[in-house]
Amino acid sequence: MADNIDQSLAVVILAAGQGTRMKSSLPKVLHRIGGRSLVGHVLASAAGLDPAHTLVVVRHERDLVAAEVAVADPAAVVVDQDEVPGTGRAVEVALDRLPDFAGDVLVLSGDVPLLDAATLTQLVAGHRASGAAVTLMTAVVADPNGYGRVIRGADGSVDRIVEQKDATDDEAAVGEINAGVYVFRAQALRTHLPRIGTDNAQAEKYLTDVAGLVRRAGDRVAASVVDDVTVTYGVNDRAQLSGVGRLLNARTVRRWQLEGATIIDPATTWIDVTATLAPDVTVLPNTHILRATAIAEGAVVGPDTSLVDCEVGERATVRRTDATLAVIGADATVGPFSYLRPGTYLAEGGKIGTFVETKNSTIGAGSKVPHLSYIGDTTIGTGVNLGAGAITANYDDLTKHRTEIGDEVHTGSHNVFVAPVRIGDGAKTGAGAVIRKDVPAGALALSVAPQRNVEGWVEKNRSGTRAADVAAHARSAQKAGDGPQGQEG
What we know:
Elements (H helix, E strand, L loop, with lengths): L5 E10 L16 E2 L2 E2 H10 L3 E8 L3 H11 L4 E4 L6 H10 L7 E6 L7 H14 L3 E7 L8 E4 L5 E5 L6 H4 L3 E10 H7 L16 H8 L4 E5 L12 H21 L3 E2 L5 E3 L4 E2 L4 E2 L3 E4 L3 E2 L4 E2 L3 E4 L2 E2 L4 E2 L2 E4 L2 E2 L4 E2 L3 E3 L4 E2 L4 E9 L2 E2 L4 E9 L1 E3 L10 E3 L9 E3 L4 E2 L4 E3 L2 E3 L4 E2 L4 E2 L8 E2 L11 H5 L4 H16 L8
Parallel strand pairs: 1-4, 1-6, 4-5, 7-11, 12-15, 13-16, 14-17, 15-18, 16-19, 17-20, 18-21, 19-22, 20-23, 21-24, 22-25, 23-26, 24-27, 25-27, 26-28, 27-29, 28-30, 30-32, 31-34, 32-35, 33-36, 34-37, 36-38
Antiparallel strand pairs: 2-3, 6-10, 7-10, 8-9
């Protein structure tokens, strides 16, 4: 990998702002779409260029942002912005950390998550081919409100960038906007950043002012107009966050469709960028495939299913299920209405059925927990069938204990296994059994109390109720039927 590093490229990501329009205690760049934070998406795209240096400038909630950067890209360097506000100052303090760097500096915003590595690679290549001191990414939009305007000279070259609050009426009418993505020669930044002041509507040191200074110094300022304006979309509030999230999800879904997955309803299917789908996977409507979930070839997932950090094996079927940190083996079936909690492992050909909850449990090959059961802290062997209503009582109010069920065990309905307990290979249990002791291999375990009927209890203790009335009527009819005439039939 080291051989691919571009020693002439440094990336600076601006992530110091508070993002007040988000109205959130969480820094704007830490809000998430598609399985990553906003700044995480930007870091992932930057990494695709193999830069020699990646620097992230932080300020608001500095420690929270720095912790996210360390997870998203451990090689990135966190740089603290000082009291001087503005994007120009942010880049200036980042460049101070690279005193000997003489290559190109790509500047990105931590709240623009849709820019992909291919688009950025094209931008850097165009900048280098043009010989420009500065190249900025621009887009032509119908409604430029809120964006800096790109003002071109009579020859069509870029003259300057004017921020919205500083624009005249004529400048505000310009439809070409600054996308907030730049490539600078490092020397141009070192020369012109110290000359930028804060005499503007926001009293900030604008990075965009470098373009005008470069132009006046006789150097070239180039612009690269993107064909797809959506890659430049930034996030400033919750509405924009969801809008950009929808765009990202649509691209992710389409990518997997082109890779061979069948996704029946893209509008109701959400797939994180960190998830993977093999060819011939089928995803039914209202399904969420999140984080590091991996789905193998031929599996069918959905409808109405949420998988978080799960593995789904080949040809498995998962219907109407909520699962987190679970492994589902090849040819296994799960659902409908199953709840798989972390630590669930369902082996090949196994079944977790309707209204079953599992947690920290291994269910062996071909074994079935068909319905209405709770299986927690349990190891189940192969070829097992648990009857309806099975419960492994794993908690004694102090400690969690394990239940072990051997191979080819078949249990009756409504069994409770009070852990710690072991059921031997080939053993059977009767309906309604409460298993408190180990069951030897091949044994039948029963816990049966004699049934006792207290005659007349309802009439005596529930007098005046409808139940008492119908019971009395039934008893009278039974007595009349037991007489001599009733015996003739």
